[in-house]
């Protein structure tokens, strides 16, 4: 129902408001990559329970806040690392590239999804568990790539990104 959906978003958003700050502190203390393992495990559990049907009787109102929190945490973690990559004078171009790639990824995902799910005559969606398993496969690439990126950048200490040299002086 619309009221139930509103409550799910209220609980998810409200919980996320408090947990996001904790995620940020944990990332600052331990690095983004290690925290990404925990958030990936959380989002995987939420996907399994919410979309694959491996729900041991946990109410939806408790599953979806975990999904909200884990996805928000993943955004915090990647932004924490990504903001260290470009030099200050390249940040806007870098962010533009990131947004373009995100849009492209969403488009490709939408097309792929249209091949993986369908509507049954009674209106139910068919293929959602298969799609969820596919999503989980890609979700687990996140911590692997984040560990690699942090290693390339010299760890999570906020040092010189990718060993970048200062920009040359111009006349």
Describe this structure in words.
- The protein is mostly helical and 171 residues long.
- Helix content is 72%, strand content 2%.
- Helix 2 runs antiparallel to helix 3, helix 2 (32-52) packs antiparallel against helix 5 and helix 2 (32-52) runs antiparallel to helix 6.
- Mean pLDDT is 83; it is low at 157-168.
SSE arrangement:
Elements (H helix, E strand, L loop, with lengths): L1 H29 L1 H21 L7 H23 L8 H26 L1 E2 L5 E2 L1 H12 L1 H12 L19
Helix pairs in contact: 1-2, 1-3, 2-3, 2-5, 2-6
Summarize the structure.
The chain has 171 residues and is mostly helical. The protein has helices at 2-30, 32-52, 60-82, 91-116, 128-139, 141-152; strands spanning 118-119, 125-126.
Spatial strand arrangement across the major sheet: 1-2
Structural class: mainly alpha
Please give the radius of gyration in angstroms. 19 Å
Order of helices and strands: HHHHEEHH
Strand content: under 5%
**Helical segment count:** 6
List keywords for this structure.
72% helix, two-stranded antiparallel ribbon, 171 residues, 2 strands, 6 helices, mainly alpha
